[in-house]
Amino acid sequence: MTTPLTTAPLEEKASKLDGRNRTSSSKNYALKYVAAAISNMAASGVSNPLDIIKVRQQLRTQTPGSRANAFWSVGVEMARVEGVRSLLNGFSASMLREVVYSGLRLGSYEFFKDTFHDMSKGALSRDGLALKVSAAAVAATVGSALANPADLVKVRMQAHYPLGSPYRNMRHAFASIWQEGARAATSTAPSAAVAGGLRALYRGVDATTVRGIILSVSQICSYDQVKQILKQRGIMEEGIGLHLTASMFAGLFCSITSNPVDVVKVRLMNDKAREFDGVVDCIKTIMRREGPGAFFKGFSMCWARLGTHTIVTFLIFERVRLLLGLEAM
Predict the structure, then answer these.
(1) Whether pLDDT at 56 is above 60
(2) Where are the Solcar repeats (predicted)?
(3) 14 pLDDT band (50/70/90 cuts)?
(4) Integer Cα distance of 263 and 248 in angstroms
């Protein structure tokens, strides 16, 4: 007895195929997040000492060009006074920040590229800068906002304290900053204390988000664009050489664009005395006291740190993608 052949309706087949495609795409996006988190954690581990020196430079208020603020002076002074281990201050908070911030801003970049391309019905070209900038900006906004508490704790743990750091570890730093905000609350109601604690952990979030957008747009988009141009013109093929070249350009470009915002962000995050009334007031105060050159304090360390971070990030990111069975970015 033969079993009659049945043909599923076309709509049912299309639905099943579409479901499998969505599942596959979701898995790929999750793997890209994992690759982004791993690569940025590795890069942050390498560049953490440079990041600390950069933060120390940006917190100093000497006139621009002062030799006492040179990166080698700051580094030598830290090693002599606080010990070599001081160059690893804030390491745990830095790792947490990379998982949230960098994992999202780099790991979700292609998700937003695909989403915006589909939403525009092809009006936004995949090779165009408009799509890349939009995707990087949204990814950075989400990542920066969520990671602000970890970023703030990292800055506090990396700052210099003449009498010794008030923070025993990352968890103690989170608790101390929360309590600092709760005590500053004008009301004794529990909800006011919670709101005060959250405000303390999210201090500087506006500057953090602006910096995240500027850095991500300049870093990710320039890497993507340089890769695209070099491949389209037949100058280089996909591989380590191309990844290294594109990441070097991206590191320089994002260092130039993000350093001024980074100075403001660091000053706000370390402002425990509430000297600045927001971003605009901080900018005005720096301009009045130190001049426009102050916005590029720590640039050498910013470039050394961001350049190193960018190169290591993209080299590992592309390699991990390959190991996970994903195509190159």
Answers:
(1) yes
(2) 27-115, 127-229, 238-323
(3) very low
(4) 22
